[in-house]
């Protein structure tokens, strides 16, 4: 009896610490909702909060006046699909970053930083140029479906090459991994440069969009491509979370603890590639979301992946919707590429982590 | 646990050359030998982490390769030598990793008991990377104890493998750890530990296995294995073997009888 009471008291104390993590998901959901509402109201055509219920069609008046009709058009055909797609891209990028960091046991791993995004972008840019060419005329109507597939294939190839280079007999060299990522990024960028060289003006505009990252092309179709990937990804996250936790002990010890390490690595690599590739095919290369989000979350809710992965999806969505809202308002009526904003915030955080690691490594 | 004719090659080097070993439930075996003798390789073969080039390892009458990783984890637990945790997991979270998919609610008492046993109850909320090397080693030992307990609850006595479990520990915690392993053996677990401290090995193991150059140099009860001759042959040092309360102990002398003139 006394044992049970002792355990109960300990349980209470546990909740008092940083493990007040059970609040994280509801809190993040609330913040995401608030961010989305702000994002709905601001933009080229401002829709004040008071008109929002009407514009969303919640008020139920049978014959909308012209203002409401305009609001509805703006919201339903432009802003809502854009916010939905942006949130999902943010969620995918952040979760892909968190999974990759778990896989490589390093908080600095990020798909954009080590060339996985560039690999996807190269494949997507190739798809633009070649489906557009004379030979690909018949393929052109397939572009919407082809781009995510090409980007996924490009990301998968890049991740696999990266893992092959940096892992030897179960050990992953982080230095080789980051340097190989630099080299792969350079190769992919050279390929994109070549495509820029042979592209015509319209293709050039599309490719530039890939390099800088932007959510301006978001449509319902694109949101519909993202949703199943995010859904599947979230479901798979629950499946790999425990394995990623144990992987922090190293591959051999994760195996000793009962993890099928080879299968875990295969699933993780496919997930990172699919999530990054599809996000990149919609938004272009957007860096640092995958580093900043999991890093911040680990400080607050701890590194256990069962919570970290879904929380990363939510915080990634919040940051991207916030950044995109900024991107389309600060230089209105023009629009700033969102990749510039995320890099401006993310690069200093990356340097901060690096300096902290240096501090830990110093004698 | 039964290993027959184990050979392990890596490239052109032969790390292990025909080692056979049978360990029964409740037995505590210490593996000793100089650096590079193949001790860790042998342990990794016994854990199923490495595959032998020749020979086979059987655990509970089944080839070790036929178990899936979770099945194997429920029947043998292993503590490795160097584990570097990069993310800020707490001690409690690391120990809970031993319980696989089970939640803290299910195995809370096991986690508490293991933390108590390694003397880290007061550090349970601390982040593992902030602890000293010895404390981290004890936390990992607690994790392995939880894994062993979870497995034994379902499948009966298991196998506990320890690779230099005392390398970072002070004297008191070395003895604590080896005594904890002994208690497991007394309850039916088969324990195999690589130990560098000969006297610790002699004091606690039922049986000593000496490896040298990838081969089994000696295997038997301590009185047969711990002799001046064997120690000189294997470790290339001169040592005096005394006896206290019927237990031999080894007092190393100088490297050679020749004075270091020159």
From TrEMBL, chain A:
Q: Which UniProt keywords apply?
A: Cell membrane, Membrane, Transmembrane, Transmembrane helix, Transport
Source organism phylogeny: Bacteria, Pseudomonadati, Pseudomonadota, Alphaproteobacteria, Hyphomicrobiales
Gene Ontology cellular component?
plasma membrane
One Pfam annotation, family name? FecCD
Family in the record: Belongs to the binding-protein-dependent transport system permease family. FecCD subfamily.
Q: Where are the transmembrane segments?
A: 21-47, 80-100, 112-131, 146-165, 177-199, 219-241, 269-295, 307-326, 338-355
Protein name according to UniProt: Iron complex transport system permease protein
Q: Does the keyword Membrane apply?
A: yes
**Cell compartments where the protein resides:** Cell membrane
Q: Choose any GO biological process term that the UniProt entry carries and state it.
A: siderophore-iron import into cell
Its membrane topology, per UniProt? Multi-pass membrane protein
Organism of origin? Bradyrhizobium sacchari
GO MF annotation terms: transmembrane transporter activity
From TrEMBL, chain B:
Q: Which residues form the ABC transporter domain?
A: 1-238
Q: Which keywords label this protein?
A: ATP-binding, Nucleotide-binding, Translocase, Transport
| GO MF | ATP binding; ATP hydrolysis activity
A Pfam family it matches: ABC_tran
UniProt cross-references to InterPro entries, sorted A to Z: AAA+_ATPase, ABC_transporter-like_ATP-bd, P-loop_NTPase
Q: What is the purpose of this protein?
A: Involved in beta-(1-->2)glucan export. Transmembrane domains (TMD) form a pore in the inner membrane and the ATP-binding domain (NBD) is responsible for energy generation. Part of the ABC transporter complex HmuTUV involved in hemin import. Responsible for energy coupling to the transport system.
Q: Which NCBIfam families match?
A: PRK13548.1 (NF010068)
Protein name (record): Iron complex transport system ATP-binding protein
The species this protein was found in: Bradyrhizobium sacchari
């Amino acid at each position: 009896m006394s044992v049970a009471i002792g355990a109960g008291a300990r349980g209470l104390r546990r909740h008092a610490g940083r493990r007040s993590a059970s609040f994280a998901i509801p809190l993040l959901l609330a913040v995401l909702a608030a961010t989305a509402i702000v994002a709905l109201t601001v933009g080229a055509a401002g829709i004040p909060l008071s008109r929002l219920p009407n514009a969303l069609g919640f008020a139920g008046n049978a014959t909308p006046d012209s203002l409401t009709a305009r609001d509805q058009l703006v919201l339903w055909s432009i802003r809502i699909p854009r916010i939905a797609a942006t949130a999902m891209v943010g969620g995918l990028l952040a979760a892909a970053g968190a999974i990759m960091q778990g896989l490589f046991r390093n908080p600095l791993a990020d798909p954009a930083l080590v060339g996985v995004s560039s690999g996807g972008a190269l494949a997507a840019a190739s798809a633009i140029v070649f489906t557009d060419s004379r030979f690909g005329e018949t393929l052109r109507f397939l572009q919407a479906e082809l781009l995510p597939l090409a980007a996924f294939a490009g990301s998968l190839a890049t991740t696999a090459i990266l893992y092959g280079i940096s892992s030897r007999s179960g050990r992953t060299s982080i230095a080789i991994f980051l340097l190989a990522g630099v080299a792969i990024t350079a190769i992919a960028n050279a390929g994109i440069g070549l495509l820029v060289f042979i592209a015509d003006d319209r293709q050039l505009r599309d490719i530039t969009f890939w390099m800088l990252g932007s959510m301006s092309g978001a449509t319902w179709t694109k949101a519909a491509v993202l949703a199943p990937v995010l859904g599947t990804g979230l479901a798979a996250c629950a499946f790999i979370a425990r394995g990623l936790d144990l992987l922090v002990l190293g591959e051999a010890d994760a195996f000793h603890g009962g993890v099928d390490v080879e299968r875990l690595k295969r699933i993780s690599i496919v997930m990172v590639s699919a999530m990054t590739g599809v996000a990149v095919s919609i938004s272009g290369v957007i860096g640092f979301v995958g580093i900043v989000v999991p890093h911040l979350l680990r400080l607050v809710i701890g590194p256990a992946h069962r919570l970290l992965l879904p929380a990363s999806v939510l915080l990634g969505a919040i940051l991207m919707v916030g950044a995109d809202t900024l991107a389309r308002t600060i230089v209105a009526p023009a629009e700033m590429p969102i990749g510039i904003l995320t890099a401006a915030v993310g690069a200093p955080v990356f340097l901060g982590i690096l300096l902290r690691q240096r501090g830990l490594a110093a004698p | 646990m039964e290993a027959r004719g184990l050979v392990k090659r890596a490239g052109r080097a032969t790390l292990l050359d025909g080692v056979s070993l049978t360990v029964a439930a409740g037995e505590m075996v210490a593996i000793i030998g100089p650096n590079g003798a193949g001790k860790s390789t042998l342990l990794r073969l016994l854990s199923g982490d490495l595959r032998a080039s020749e020979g086979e390892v059987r655990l509970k009458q089944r080839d070790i390769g036929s178990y899936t990783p979770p099945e194997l984890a429920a029947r043998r637990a292993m503590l490795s030598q160097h584990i570097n945790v990069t993310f800020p997991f707490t001690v409690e979270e690391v120990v809970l990793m031993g319980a696989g998919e089970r939640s803290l609610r299910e195995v809370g008492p096991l986690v508490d008991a293991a933390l108590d046993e390694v003397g880290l109850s007061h550090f349970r909320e601390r982040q593992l990377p902030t602890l000293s090397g010895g404390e981290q080693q004890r936390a990992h030992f607690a994790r392995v104890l939880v894994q062993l307990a979870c497995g034994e609850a379902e499948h009966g006595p298991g196998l506990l493998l320890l690779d230099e479990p005392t390398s970072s520990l002070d004297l008191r915690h070395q003895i604590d750890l080896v005594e904890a392993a002994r208690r497991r053996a007394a309850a039916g677990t088969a324990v195999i530990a690589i130990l560098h401290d000969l006297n610790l090995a002699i004091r606690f193991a039922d049986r000593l296995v000496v490896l040298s150059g990838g081969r089994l140099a000696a295997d038997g009860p301590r009185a047969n294995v711990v002799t001046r001759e064997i120690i000189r042959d294997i470790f290339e040092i001169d040592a005096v073997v005394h006896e206290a309360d019927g237990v031999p102990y080894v007092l190393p002398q100088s490297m050679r009888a020749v004075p270091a003139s020159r």
